[in-house]
Amino acid sequence: MEKEILAYHETMETHEVLNLKTVCLLKSKLMQGLCFDNDLKVLMEKNVQQSIAAINELKEFYKGARTNYIE
């Protein structure tokens, strides 16, 4: 099977979404330590797990990213 290569705009968009999910993960993980409401902690932990899954999925797409410009 051939390796799929992302277009330049797809590479950029994948990078942006990966950055967003990483920031969401960090924020939820840090806020868990400051939160005293158990229900809210459960929701934040669910967000952490979903963010980890999304990041792992995006990393697979990123393998086909274009990292240099060749005409």
Automatic annotation (TrEMBL):
<protein>
    <submittedName>
        <fullName>Spore coat protein</fullName>
    </submittedName>
</protein>
<keyword id="KW-0167">Capsid protein</keyword>
<keyword id="KW-0946">Virion</keyword>
<dbReference type="InterPro" id="IPR012347">
    <property type="entry name" value="Ferritin-like"/>
</dbReference>
